[in-house]
Each structure stands twice: as structure tokens, then as C-alpha cells.
Amino acid sequence: MTTAYVSLDTSAVAAGAQQLEAALLSHGATVRRNGSRGLAWAEPLLELVAGQSRLAFRNVRAADVAAILEQGAEHPQCLGEVDRIDFLNRQTRTIFDRAGTAHPLELAKTTILEECLERGPETLLDEVQTAGLRGRGGAGFPAHIKWRTVLDTPAEQKYVVCNADEGDSGTFADRLLMEGDPYRLIEGMTISALATQATRGYVYLRSEYPLAADIFQAALDGAYADGLLGADVLGSGRSFDLELFIGAGAYICGEETSLLESLEGKRGEIRAKPPVPAVAGLFGKPTLVHNVISFASVPAIMKNGGEWYAALGVGRSTGTMPFQLAGNVKRGGLVEVPFGITIDALVHGYGDGTRSGRPIRTVQIGGPLGAYLAPDEFDTPLTYEHMAALGAGIGHGGVVVYDDSVDLAEQARFAFAFCEVESCGKCTPCRIGAVRGKETMDAVLRARAEGRSTADRLAVVEDLCEVMETASLCQMGGMTPIPVVSAMKRFPGDFQP
Asked: Which residue among 237, 275, 400, 442 is least enclosed by CB atoms within 10 Å?
């Protein structure tokens, strides 16, 4: 009897994975559901067990099943053995190494936690410092500094909070991990709690991820049943409770202090700093806040050692990053590689250019508030330092590709419009600046269409960007100028009549 694997993740389901499963069952196959391997361009991806390996078939529809079962490796949609797919075997997967291999709830619940329970907080913290792990949520702040601050701040209660409010356009790594290997996140958070002496944690998940919520809650239940969470973690006498919290759809809650406000049952709104959350976070207590990928990096560091992790990447940009290719790209999906890969190697080597077949004109890295980069910059290594030198950032690793039909003036307007809708409204530069920016860009677009000079209106845009960047309370307003200014600087012709 044929054994088939079909991804259960959101993108596969949207592409027809449920119908594919039904067709396989009707043809007598045994179907097992697994997490995604990150090949969004190949979904629904079908894997058929063939001896000790699996044959992969791309973009399989229900109508294709009969022919695939009959022809096997000779079928034109066959990609060959999964482990030999070029898109996968050139990656260095330290976070997503198990994702897609089995049902997410069948994966091992822990790989290194038992050993970590025997280590003291200082030992765990030193390992993270040696590794050079930096926050993967956007700022790239050294993780060990946050850990040390929480550990050293006296309090009767400390918290660990995971920011899974993955709202940036073109990003989906958090969802893939929570749907494909939820125990990796649970283990990483538990180790972080041991290192900071926190006893309670929360995962703040965006409401638009219902499947991730179901899978992760089931994983939490399994972890409690097996003693990995609760009052006596694996019989160690150490306590750590973890709870899933569903957000209400506000982009601003991706900012850590707004997220904490929401967790406390308040309106998602920026807090002024200081104090930082590591000193006074959730309910005023020391709180370690990281995103999903930051926490999920911890088990591999503890298992293989900080020096091993630090050897991956370039300079202070250590380890691997799960970049996410999206937009007008032929092969979109997740690519986990060490820092230092060039933009060109990512969008052409993995993404294979645009889906439309037209030349790539720009890529935006780091979400809707990231910079637009020009093709002559595509040889830049993707590290925090190299991107900062361009006035750009890596953010959460989202890479959105645009072909030569894109209008960068329209994209600049979109940045202001996005900020107008998503601003929490607490500070004037962001709340009012975004509105005035959108209005001014509308004037620019009208002048351009009528063949009139846009210089005076563009000068106003530049002034608005300066105010927003320097005076906004948080990165929502402070980063909105980045896509605007980068578009004006690199593609000035799009702003002229």
C-alpha cells in the first residue's frame, strides 16, 4: 500500500491539500499529514514513500493523483527525492531541520531540555552570549543582554513572552514553525525561562493564524501531559507554565510594549521607554520578550554549543536566518541559511527570479516599513551591519520581490497609508504625520499625472519623514520614512512628471 505525506499547513490547505488527501484516500493510499518544508512554490507538495526515501511531487491536484501513483518518478511533476531537492539541500537548517518530516505533534517534544535543567542560569546565559544570538524580530538586539537584565532584576514574579504577532507583509516563518514544529518553540521558551528564573510564559499569536493556534494548543496540552510544563518540569522541581493568547488583529501589537498592554487586557498602545520590558514589562514585572524564531534558535545553541552557532554567519551577524521569499517571485518559500548570503543569491539562486518573467526592479526587505533596494545593491551580503550601511534592515527576514512594472511613488504613498491605518495614535508625529504624508503623496501623484513639477511637495514629504523618524515614540512612526525615503532616493524618476 502506498504511503503519502501531504502538508497540513495553511498555505498547502489554501492550495488544495484537503482535496489532494481525499483523492489519495479514494485511490487506496495511506495518507499522513506533516508540517510544511517551506516550499510554498510547490504546494500542494506530495511525498510518496519509496524505500528509505520519499519522492516529492510539486503542485499536485486531485486530478493528478491517478497518473502519479501509476508513473511514480517518471511523472513530469516529480522533483526527485525530497532530500535532494536543490531548494532544500543548499540550506542550513538549524531551526527548521525537523519541520515537514512528520506530523507536528509526532515530533520529539524535547531534544536538550533535560540537560538544561541540570545547568544553572549563568551557564545557559553564557552559552547564548557566546553564540551571539540576536533578536530575530527586527531590531537585532543581543539576546544575552535581555536575558541578563531579566535575571539580575529582583522580583517575586518574572515572565517570558513570545511575540508571534507576525504582521509584516511577506513573512510567514513564525506560522510555519508553530504549524510544523511547535515543540521547538515550547522547548526554547522553557530553556529561556530557566535561564532568567521566570515561572510563567505567554505566546501572543495573531488572530489570523487559526490553524497555528489549534496545533500549538494541542502541543501545549501534550507538553503538560508529559511533564515538560507545569509545577515540576521533568521532575526537576522547577516550575514553568505556558499559555497561548490570541491577539485581536492590531499590527501595532507586534511592537513589544503594545503587545504587553494587550496581554494585560488594555488597548494595544505604545509605552514610553524607559523602563524597558526586561526591567518592568508584563504587569510591571521583569519580562523577556522575543519573537518565535529567537526562542526557537535556543535548543540548537544548547545542543551544539555557542561556539558552533557563532561560527555560522558573518561577524556579529551569527547563526542562521529563515528568510521568506514572497511577492512577484517564481519560487517563493522559506530559505534558512547563515547570515552573509547576498540578496542576489537569495532572489535569483533560490527564488529563480520573478513569476512574471520580467526583470526584478526592487526588493523590499523587512516588511512594509523596510527599504526598497535597487539591483546594483543586490550583491550586498544579508547581515545586520551590511544592511544598516545601506539605510536598510533585515527585520523578520521577509523579502518581497517586485518586477519592473512597480511604481515606487505609489509604494511610498502606501507606506504612509499603512501607518495611518495601523498607528496606535499615541504620539502626534506618527498619528498626524502619516495622514499628512499620504495627502502630500496624493498631491505628488496628481502633479506627476498632470505634468507639473513635484519638487515643492516632495520637499514637504522629506520634512515629514524627518519629523516622524526623530520624534515618534516607537518604530511604527520612526520607520515609516524608510520605504518612502529609499524609494525617493533610489528611484527618483518615479516621482517626476
From this structure: 237
Cα 325 from chain centre = 11
Rounded distance, CA 12 to CA 5, Å?
A: 12
C-alpha 130/C-alpha 321 separation (Å) is: 18
Residue 339 lies in a domain: yes
- Our count of domains for the chain comes to 4
In a domain, 359, yes or no: yes
Question: What whole-number distance in Å separates Cα of residue 382 and Cα of residue 371?
Answer: 13
pLDDT tens, residue by residue, 408-418:
999 999 999 99
State which residues form the domain around 14: 3-89
| Signed CA dihedral, 457, 459, 463, 465: sign only | positive
pTM above 0.90, yes or no: yes
- 3-state SS, residue 16: coil
Q: Give the Cα separation of 444 and 453 in Å (integer).
A: 9
Cell of 477: 512612526
Strands 320-327 and 398-403: parallel
Residue with cell 486530478: 63
Q: Point out the domain boundary residue: 261, 284, 309.
A: 309
Question: Residue ranges of the alpha helices (H) in 28-111?
Answer: 65-71, 86-89
| 6 neighbors 48 (Cβ within 8 angstroms) | no
Model confidence pLDDT, tens digit, residues 224-246? 999 999 999 999 999 999 999 99
List 53's β-bridge partners, or say none: 50
Give the residue among 35, 286, 291, 34 at the shortest CA–CA distance from 188: 291
Are 233 and 372 members of one domain?
Answer: no
